[in-house]
Structures
1.
Amino acid sequence: MALIPSQVLRVAILLSYFSILCNYKAIDMPAHQTYGGSWKFLTFIDLVIQAVFFGVCVLTDLSSLLTKGSESQEQERQLRKLIGLRDWMMAVLAFPVGVI
């Protein structure tokens, strides 16, 4: 089954967020050595939230691709829970912090 462009885009965004996080942590800034470190900056917190959110999106896409032909009720229930987690993260964490 072919991947949809949105799934490929989510994987690309996830990889770019992880590369930005790795590069950000490699930079030696004096502000990172003080109280709170990188976690005192909202931009860093937003970057981590967005990376986790897109990780859940990619996991949801993979789960839906793997359970596409299955008729198992347990797998469908787990997929619905994962989709609910993804929607909750978007509504409560990713969107509001990203807009700020």
Note: The chain has a mean pLDDT of 87.
2.
Amino acid sequence: MQSYKMFIGGEWVEAVGGERFESLNPFTGKAWATIPRGKPADVDRAVAAAKAGFRTGPWPKLTATERGHLLRRLGDLIAEHAEQLARTEVTDNGKLINEMAFQLKYIPQWYYYFGGLADKVQGAVIPIDKPQTFNFTRQEALGVCVGITAWNSPLLLLAYKLAPALAAGNTFVAKPSEFTSASTLEFAKLVDKAGFPPGVFNVVTGFGGEIGDALISHADVAKVAFTGSEATGRRIGELAARSFKKVTLELGGKSPHIVFDDAEIDNAVKGVISGIFAATGQTCIAGSRLLVHRSIHDQFVERVVAFAGRAKKGDPLLASTQVGPVTTPPQYRKILDYIDVAKGEGATCVLGGGPAAGPDVGEGGYFVEPTIFTGVHNRMRIAQEEVFGPVLACIPFEDDEEAIAIANDTTFGLAAGFWTQDIRRILRVSERLQAGTVWVNTYRVISYLSPLGGYKHSGIGRENGLDSIQNYLQTKSIMIGTAEDVVDPFVMR
């Protein structure tokens, strides 16, 4: 049984109240670690440490180039410890070792990229229309930034937030999900080893309902970045607005995955499988609505069913496993409830439709069979609400116009994908889809270089890419008068 502490002000500390909670292994259903159960007093400690780190000590005295060196050093340390961090995440969230090992080997790129960007942040000299006035701008850090991450990819989602925040010169308080706190605490060891000054990076752990409001509402917090559900994002937005905090919200999705009748079928089948059954469907960008041209619908769905039906379920730490467990007990129950809802609405279950059983999935794991529904129309709850699990809703369409209309007929707009060989269709459809990311003849591709974020209820702002660092900066305009005499003090110049 692992026993972790919080990381605050460069020190490893217990919660003020001394309480702890257990973290469960989704494959076994058993506790494997204990985590400090923070309360508002712990939030105060963490924010105070971050505030002190921002205003005093070594951090504000570093040049942007020196901050970049620290970020690149952190990237090197992540690369060195990628295997250990990946195994920690698999043990904590049940995702496949193949996927998490790839993620952890890729995550250093965020710290290399933003480490290189740190000393490229520049102001401007403005040729202002006022005579005898010199005007220039500065890009300055916000102060204390908070990052609240979801349980599906804790360290990747943290990188989206932490790397640009530190590159911009801010300090940071991380609040990982109570279901998957261990990897963030392991990561904090590397931040410490990299040589970041005390208070620059802090981790407070606990339940959102107990510390979330205190963290978001804290007077000394300037910015909140969150990845998670629409409902929680709305709550964060409301609380942050009361004190005019900046927010970045990457929320849910009900992403359409469209297959046109000229698609390369073998690749499209693999793309659809990747979009919904990789990561056990526990990803905001999951292609959970499959839209197929009616002329190929039955044939295509049959091939998807056959492919998904062969997927190997089991221990996520084994390289041969293709479908792992659901991460949390509440999510496991939610997915099964949605399967029952779909059946009650009249959808036809052609694969799965319940808990998985057998020797490979063990006795205590939270396994759901890869599930596919046909006979779905877009007004069904299974087509409108985010399930966040291995459940695919199949909908036929007649032509491009209907496909676009169905795809956009949702409150979400995080991602979309489609398969076609027609370049004119590629340009036309990609322009009209209401989604922050559109994949064509591929799916589920993420890069530190490319912005990620949503339309509509899928969030506010963008993470990754060149523009994302602007979310952690504010612009100051400085005007210097060069006139020897002030003409009229009662008239605005």
Note: The radius of gyration is 24 Å.
3.
Amino acid sequence: MASERVLVTGASGFVGPHVVAALVQAGYRLRLALRRPQPVPAGVETVMFGDLSSPIDWQAALAGVDHVVHMAGLAHAGPGLDEALYIRINTQATLDLARAAAAAGVRRFVYLSSIKALSGAVDGPPLAEDAPPMPGDAYGRSKLAAEQGLAALDLEWVALRPVLIYGPGVKANMAALLRLARLPLPLPFGGLAAGRSLLAVENMADAIRFALTPACPPRRSYAVSDPAPISVADMLAAMRSGLGRSPGLVAIPEAWLRRLARLAGREETFLKLAGSLVARPERLLRAGWQPPAETRAALARLAAPRHDG
């Protein structure tokens, strides 16, 4: 493994530094494709590349590369963006890189897709990995189109479909939940018992490491999540345990909370966290993946006060 070089795109994002650390620890030699200079670990190479919305010549970046981990793309930014931009960046640019990788003799291409490629649901029954994909928005459609394009290439590819990722620096809804957990007040969410799939950023990074190994069968997609779903009530309890506090939760009926969220115009936000979206990583687990982080412990670490320097 020490002789295997991996080209990584998207290393400057939320997940990227964790992936870099995991792959370095596993003994891979890394070459990071960056849009702007940034500090990197000792021994890690860097190459500069342009905007994914324009064609890129990947030949030099792929020289001597054994594997590619492609995480760069246009994030899920809501309904305001033109679908053509999602297709250009998340679909066409991915396939341009994959074709160049195939031509360069790359052995494995790991693509960071999204659970949104499988379903746009935020609530409902558990998602089956082999169910017909039904993406609900432009982002999900662009990710699914990239997976379908990879399937047409003569290349060992793996598409990873993560659920909601949490970890240091998390934003949006999980950041809001963390702020709630830190409030020195009882919270009315003890009745939110529906299971929800989450993904610790450490587990996301380790899934990418695993996807590069022969143990992970190629040419298929995988849901990626922490193995056990967790309710909002248990999320808050875990976060408050990291703060050294009791859960402090009051069991208000979920139907009441959902009604209040609807009246406030926040029902979609409410469902994104409280909805019972479950996508278990059955395929990865059957292949032998052993995620290193346990959900409650990871949430407690996320909330724990930091003592830097």
Note: The beta strands are 5-9, 29-34, 45-48, 67-70, 108-112, 157-162, 164-166, 198-200, 220-224.
4.
Amino acid sequence: MTFSQNILIWYAQNKRTLPWRRTRDPYKIWLSEIMLQQTRVVQGTPYYLKFVANFPTVYDLAASSEEEVLKLWQGLGYYSRARNLHATAKMVVEEYEGNFPNTYEGLLKLKGVGDYTASAIASICFDEAQPVVDGNVYRVLARYFGVDIAINSTEGVKYFKELAREVMDTENIRDYNQGIMEFGAIQCAPKKPYCLHCPLNESCVALQGNKIEKLPVKLNKTKVRNRYFNYLVPVIEAKDGDLRTVLAQRKGKGIWQNLWEFPLLECQAEANLEKVKQFLPEILELKDIPEVTPLNEQLIVHKLSHQHLHTRFWKVKTKTDLTNSIPIKNLEDYPVPVLIADFIERLKNSYF
């Protein structure tokens, strides 16, 4: 029995019931593929269902505002995916009359759609014989065939794509591609794979050579940058008795583009109360001397792929009616990074 036949049999017996597997609609397959990049299925599924409920068609997504999209995406991370999602929906509506291209080459022309996503949509929706290569597929192929070429090297990307093409089942490409990804997610898991009951265990090179833990090989290119964030949380008591605060929208091409956050003071190292007070006039135009107190004694370390954000929130109690202030009760209406969302959730009852 061939490698691909084993994968297809395993998939028929073990596949999970997932909402996007009940359709060939390229819009919904595209949504699921974009969401599941760098996101586990269990985390991504509620977001998929939420998006489909709010934007049933690509026309609905294209007609929405970026802020609506970012708010629904809040918590999934890698927000460039959400911005590209919105831009691509507009592109499909405006340039393709609402119809996704039905070929791999055509799909590659869409913003935010690379080799993997184009291969997935082309094979799952249109039965085009294109191999998919994601993290799960890299792992299965590296272990089964005993390949020690780094998966994130130029040579590795090319090698594994060619290998995936050689072993794929062209006649059942839709199920085969979903099957090998599922196999890597469940059977040939990153840690503690189920080798004892694996249908491929007798011919798996890594298992026979005791190299399961060593494969796949990945070059360590990531250099983590430490940043020190001080969020200034104005608390203004309005004339009507309501509490108000201030949010600012992040601009530029850095992290969290177009999301909202409290006014930010970034320092080279952890800042004390005196330093925060020193720079406060540059960030907030206050007409009084505010009461400034830290809201978390220990720094909150928020880890991103290439950055660790060491964060402290500071309460700035003032009587100045700051420009563009908003009612604190409306904070949850804004799309914010999960770091800010967690802060709001923790403190809204006891502090706000």
Note: The radius of gyration is 24 Å.
